[in-house]
Amino acid sequence: MPTALVTGVAGFIGSSLADALLDQGYTVRGIDNFTTGRQENIDPLANHSAFSFAECDIRDADSVAELMEGVDYVFHQAAVPSVPRSVDDPVTSTDANCTGTATILGEARKAGVDTAVVASSSSVYGSSETLPKVESMKESPESPYALSKYYTEKLAIQFSELYDIDTVALRYFNVFGPGQDPDGEYAAVIPKFIELMLDDERPVIYGDGEQSRDFTYIDNVIQANVLAAEGDATGIAINVGCGDRITISELVERINDVLGTDIKAIYDDPRPGDVRHSMANTKLAGEELGYEPEIGFQEGLAKTIEWFTK
Question: What are the distances in angstroms from CA 19 to CA 87, 300, 306?
Fold first, then answer.
């Protein structure tokens, strides 16, 4: 079976992907510097004989070069995430996400890696009112984070054109699922709301609550990554979502329904850089990858709440 390098392996998506790859018989090497990743995410992986881990920064070319030897597929998940975080600290987000991606792709090329799959974001589309978001639309990144992801995918595509390496950029739409970190100022909305509401606390919605998202369960994202690595697509950016959306106010209602509660949200001022609406057109993912969402939002939400409850 292939050998995979997963960057950002101590993060929510990276650790979930590594676990799935191990289950499929892959040998997995993980890398993380714990800037946002958590040790508890990789503790369960450490017991697997086919998993190895190196604590280092993706901008450290010498360390990355050593880890690339004999790798078939690179799954580049490492990044400093969050639109609000990037607005507060654009330098760190830009350096880690842009220089880090260039280093990973550069060393992958030198090592003769077959395919590099890089994580991009639906935030590259900006706040265009046109829905669903389709890959042929003009990108309009409106935050340093979105701009760094735009650079990430454009550099990956350029590598496929200039060098002998296949690359695919996956534009994630609001990924969620069990194990996602609910804590901190920049936590994703679903785990944060679930944890607050389990404690009978009111979640805070920034804006009027009518902004909408295509929340995508983690298993769908894992499926897309594996299909991208093992398939023939190259030099392309592809949406990974469910092709549906709900408002943030409706999210609170859905969580209340599952919990059997009636907790009202608190509404606050909108945050700069947040897009108004987001929903994926997944036709290209189906055509290029054979991707089809396996778990819808409601089922994924129930699984996530069950995990947090336990």
Answer: 32, 18, 20
H or E element that contains 194:
helix 189-198
What average pLDDT does the segment 41-50 reach?
96
Give residue 212's pLDDT.
Answer: 94
pLDDT digits (tens, 9 = 90+) for 116-125: 999 999 999 9
Strand order across the beta sheet in which 166-172 lies: 51-55, 27-32, 3-7, 73-76, 115-121, 166-172, 236-240
The set of residues, in sequence order, having a beta carbon less than 8 Å from that of 48 and lying 6+ positions away, is 22, 28
pLDDT > 90: what percent of the chain? 94
Structural domain that includes position 88: 3-177+216-242+279-295
Question: Nearest Cα to 17, choosing from 115, 117, 102?
Answer: 117
- pLDDT attached to residue 156: 98
Specify the pairing of strand 175-176 against strand 51-55: unpaired
What CATH number is given to the structural domain containing 121? 3.40.50.720
